Amino acid sequence: MTYYRGYILIRLKIVGKEWNVVDKLKDLHSKENGEDWMVTYATPVYGGWDIIVECSFSNLNELDKIVTFCRVDDELSQWIEETTTLMGTKNDYK
């Protein structure tokens, strides 16, 4: 199976919650049969965004689950102000 690679840029509402968000996302992965997605990397960054999250997935529905989790989870929705999602153009992530 081949995978796409996606990146979620996160801007926080609350300064100082960077590592809380990273800890919550770093082990996120699929739990349902027929799905195969995971967060492969997350870290705070400098610049206009506070955190970058890398994920791998086999279809867009799976990317949507990851982004939606960031926006609706009880804790994350209190900490995250905004997200922007970028996706690789080829499904050759190994």
Summarize the structure.
The protein is an alpha+beta fold.
Task: Characterize the structure shown.
The chain has 94 residues and is of the alpha+beta class. The protein has a single domain (4-87), classed as Lrp/AsnC effector binding domain/regulation of amino acid metabolism (RAM) domain (Alpha-Beta Plaits, 2-Layer Sandwich), CATH 3.30.70. It is 29% helix and 33% strand. It has 3 helices and 4 strands; from the N terminus they run E-H-E-E-H-H-E. It has a 4-stranded antiparallel sheet with strand order 2-3-1-4. The protein is globular, with a radius of gyration of 13 Å. The mean pLDDT is 93.
Helix-and-strand structural type: alpha+beta
How many helices does DSSP assign?
Answer: 3
Q: Mean of the pLDDT scores?
A: 93
Helical content stands at 25-40%
- Strands ordered across the widest β-sheet: 2-3-1-4
Q: Give the overall shape.
A: globular
Count of folded domains: 1
Assembly classification: single chain
Topology-level CATH name: Alpha-Beta Plaits
CATH architecture type: 2-Layer Sandwich
